[in-house]
Amino acid sequence: YQPPAGTLRLSQKSVAKPFLEVLSGRRQQVPPIWMMRQAGRYLPEYRELRAKAGSFLDLCFTPDYAAEVTLQPIRRFNFDAAIIFSDILVIPYALGRSVRFEAGEGPRLDPLNTPEQVTTLARHADFGKLEPVYEALRRVKRELAPEIALIGFCGAPWTVATYMVAGQGTPDQAPARMMAYRHPETFAEIIDVLVENSIQYLLGQLKAGADALQIFDTWAGVLPPREFERWSIEPAKRIVAGVRAKAPEAKIIGFPRGAGALLPAYVEATGVDAVSIDWAAEPSMIRERVQSRVAVQGNLDPLALIAGGAALDRAVDDVLANYAEGRLIFNLGHGIQPETPIAHVEQMLKRVRAYRG
Ligand code: CP3
C-alpha cells in the first residue's frame, strides 16, 4: 500500500484517526472506509488459517488466530478501521448455550424455548469464556498503525435472540417473532439478560483497547413498528446508556438493518453516534433526518462489489454523491460476500480514496 501523496505517517499516539474524527462530528475530506465482514472467506489467507484452526469458535477464541485474521484485511487494504474478529453468537456461548458453526450451513444452537431455560439463562453466564476476545483486542491494538481505529462489537439483543430461540437462522425470524407475541414476558427476560451481558461485554472490549463499538441488529427490519420500538430501539437505548454510564466518551454505531423509515426514531431514542445504513435506504430522508444529527456509515450494495466494472464505479459514486458532503464512513450496506473478487475491493478503495469533497 502507498499512502496518498502528502500524507504523513506519524508514529505518535496522538495522531488522529479519521474514522473516529467522523464519529466525533468532524467530516473528513476523504471518507474513512472499512467493510463489514472484512475478515472472512473472500480472502485466501483467511481460508488458509480457518482450515488450520479447527472450528470457527476455535478461530474466534485463539487470540493469536483472531488477532491475525483481524489484521489480514488491514495489511492488504489499509482500511481506516479494523473490526475484532469474533461473532455475535459468543454471547449465547458465554451464557452456556451450545453454539456450533456447520460448514456451509451457518450457526446451530440448542433452541431456547421453555420458560425454565429462560429463567435460568443468566445463572449460566461465564464471562471468563470471553477473555480470549479481550486478549485478541490487546494484541491487535499493539500492532495497528496509530491512524487506524479498532472496532469492538456485539449483536443487538433482538438479533441474538432470534438465533437463540430458533437455534439457527430462519428466513423471517418467525420463531422469535412468535415467542415475542405469545409470551412477551418470557421473551423480555431473554432480552434483559442480553442487554446486561452486552453492556459488560462492550465495556470489556473498550477496556481491552477498542476505540469504538458497533451493535449489529441484522434482523431489525422484520419487526412491525411497535415491536421495533420494543425489541430493537429500547434494548439499544439501554445498552448505549449502560456503556456510557461507565465510559461516557464511548463512540457507538448502531446497525438496525432494514429499519427504513424508522431509522430517525432509532437515532433519536438510542443516542448512538452513527448509524450503519443498508443499501435500500432512501438518500434524501437519510440526509435530512439522520445525517443531520449523526454520522452515517454505508451503504454500497455488496452485490455491486461482486459485479465490479462500471456498475461498481456507479454504485461507489452514488454513495459518495448521496452522503459524502456530510459525515460519512464509507462501508457496505451489509457484509461482504465470500465470492467477491479481491480486485473489486481494490477498485472500490481506489475510487473512494480519490474522492476530494
Ligand atoms: O466483520 C468482521 O470481519 C468481524 C467478524 C464478524 C463475523 N460475524 C465473523 C464471521 C462479525 C462482525 C460478525 C457479525 C455477525 N455474525 C452478524 C451480524 C452482522 C451480519 O453480517 O449480519 C450475524 C447475524 C452473525 C451470525 C453468523 N455468523 C452467521 C449467520 C454466520 C453464518 C453465515 C456466514 O456468513 O457465514 C456466521 C459465521 C461467520 N461469522 C463467519 C465469519 C467470518 C463465516 C464462518 C466461516 O468462516 O466458516
Quick gist of this model?
The chain has 357 residues and is of the alpha/beta class. It has helices spanning 18-23, 44-53, 56-61, 63-77, 90-94, 115-119, 131-143, 157-166, 174-182, 184-207, 225-246, 263-270, 283-291, 302-307, 309-323, 342-353, and strands spanning 81-83, 99-102, 106-109, 149-155, 212-217, 252-256, 274-276, 295-300, 328-332.
- Helix- and strand-based class? alpha/beta
Helix and strand succession? HHHHEHEEHHEHHHEHEHEHEHHEH
Share of β-strand residues: 5-15%
Indicate the overall shape: globular
CATH topology: TIM Barrel
CATH C-level name: Alpha Beta
Percentage of residues assigned to helices: 40-55%
The rounded Rg comes to: 19 Å
Largest sheet: 7 strands, parallel
- Give the CATH architecture: Alpha-Beta Barrel
Structurally, how many domains make up the residues?
1
SS elements, strand count: 9
Which strand order do you get reading across the main beta sheet? 1-4-5-6-7-8-9
End-to-end gap: 22 Å
Mean pLDDT: 95
Bound small molecules, which ones?
A: coproporphyrinogen III
- List low-pLDDT spans: none
The number of helices is: 16
Protein topology:
Layout lengths: L17 H6 L20 H10 L2 H6 L1 H15 L3 E3 L6 H5 L4 E4 L3 E4 L5 H5 L11 H13 L5 E7 L1 H10 L7 H9 L1 H24 L4 E6 L7 H22 L5 E5 L6 H8 L3 E3 L6 H9 L3 E6 L1 H6 L1 H15 L4 E5 L9 H12 L4
Helix pairs in contact: 4-7, 8-9, 8-10, 9-10, 10-11, 11-12, 15-16
